[in-house]
Design goal:
The chain is of the alpha+beta class. The protein is built from 4 helices and 6 strands. The chain has one domain (about 1-125): 3-Layer(aba) Sandwich (Aminopeptidase). It is about 25% helix and about 25% strand. It has a 6-stranded mixed β-sheet with strand order 1-2-3-4-5-6. Strand 3 (about 55-60) and strand 4 (about 60-70) form a beta hairpin. The chain starts with a strand and ends in a 20-residue tail after the last helix. About 25% of the residues are buried. The structure holds coenzyme A. Coenzyme A (COA) binds next to strand 5, helix 3 and helix 4. The site of coenzyme A has 22 residues, from strand 5, helix 3 and helix 4.
């Protein structure tokens, strides 16, 4: 699907593929790079390869926003990255990328995410409800003994 919404110059897609270099560049431009393993090319490639939904926003051929999700399409959808380039923020692109993601999900599917500190006030503003008992654990590195 490819649509144009929220301003004349931004195109949205949930089918365009992007490269690791494009993703890393966008993460840098959005400030989210500091919270992702951008130096680990294998990890970044796996993030793209295994994404179930990759919603993207384009200004011409320039990637200006992305929402990457893992989902079963019916019950839950983990929105792992939402990033909009600094020069394009506050133009409704983040909201549009989430809407495009949700358009791929069955009615009632829950979107789940962990907010970056800079975005904790963003999600309640666009209709997300906080949850007091979220738990995460990272698999130990192979070298850990
Ligand atoms: C957070 C982010 C994705 C929002 O995208 P965006 O395209 O700028 O947001 P939108 O234009 O859709 O904003 C919708 C509303 O939220 C507000 N908003 C945007 N960013 C906000 C923030 N960081 N904190 C609080 N409110 C915010 C907007 O002002 C807008 O309000 P309005 O409708 O009253 O004008 C984007 O700013 C970003 O990429 N930030 C850096 C990376 C990051 O922190 N990502 C989130 C990882 S969990």
């Amino acid at each position: 699907m490819s649509t144009q919404q929220e301003g004349p110059n931004i195109d949205y897609s949930d089918s365009r593929r992007i490269t690791v270099a494009q993703l890393v560049d966008l993460l840098r431009r959005s400030t989210l790079a500091e919270r992702r393993l951008i130096e680990d090319e294998a990890c970044m490639a796996a993030m793209l390869k295994h994404a179930d939904i990759l919603a993207t926003a384009w200004d011409g051929e320039r990637l200006v926003g992305a929402a990457r999700s893992l989902t079963d399409f019916a019950y839950c959808c983990y929105l792992s990255e939402l990033a909009v380039g600094s020069a394009y923020q506050h133009r409704g692109i983040g909201r549009a990328l989430i809407s495009l993601t949700e358009s791929r999900l069955a009615p009632g599917t829950k979107v789940i995410l962990l907010s970056a500190p800079a975005a904790v006030d963003y999600y309640p503003k666009i209709g997300f409800t906080g949850h007091p008992s979220e738990w995460t654990r990272a698999k130990r590195p192979k070298t850990f003994s």
